[in-house]
Amino acid sequence: MKVSFAQLEEGRVKTGPLASGEGERKGVFVMTHTDGRVIHLLCDVGTTTQWEHVIIAAVQKTEEGQIVQAELDINTISFIKRLFWDDEETVMVILDDRCPSFDTHQPVHLLKSKRQTYLLPNPALFTPQAEPENVIAMPTPEPPAPEVESEPQS
């Protein structure tokens, strides 16, 4: 994990129960995305556990002025990963097993063990390639035909 969070200091929460002091390697940070989403970051570099941990959550205002959870896209998650870790550091995204599918409107947890390194798959698995010959392409289903109203019988 990076030694300094200088890029985040302006958004550090310095009052209240989640407050932390300038330069501390843990805390809550708030930043505004260029699209207006407000990104909340809760960070602990392993002061109490053997894990470096960043929780990312985003909120936005609806047209009615209501604050709701906002979507976290992969570009935003990657940008935030690079705020805390160097490019060559591998960080895991852990999904809660109680959640049946990945919901991008829920907070995302980035974790890195302070004790172990990770065995990574071949990078070729992550690069787009032509479809292998043994993969069967599934046909696109036809949309259902519109229902025709029948005329009442006399």
Structural overview:
The chain is flat. Strands 1, 2, 3, 4, 5 and 6 form a 6-stranded antiparallel beta sheet that branches. The chain has one domain. The protein has one helix at 74-84; strands at 26-32, 38-44, 51-61, 67-69, 92-94, 108-113. 7% of the residues lie in helices and 24% in strands. The chain has 154 residues and is mainly β. A hairpin with a 5-residue loop joins strand 1 (26-32) and strand 2. It has 1 helix and 6 strands.
Keywords:
154 residues; mainly beta; six-stranded antiparallel sheet
Mean pLDDT: 80
Distance separating the two termini: 79 Å
Q: What is the CA-atom radius of gyration, in angstroms?
A: 22 Å
Derived structural class: mainly beta
The helix content is under 10%
Instruction: Count every helix, treating DSSP H or I runs of 4 or more residues as helices.
Output: 1
Low-confidence stretches: none
Output the helix-strand order: EEEEHEE
The largest pleated sheet is described as: 6 strands, antiparallel
Shape: flat
Record field, number of beta strands = 6
SSE layout:
Elements: E1 26-32, E2 38-44, E3 51-61, E4 67-69, H1 74-84, E5 92-94, E6 108-113
Antiparallel strand pairs: 1-2, 2-3, 3-4, 3-6, 5-6
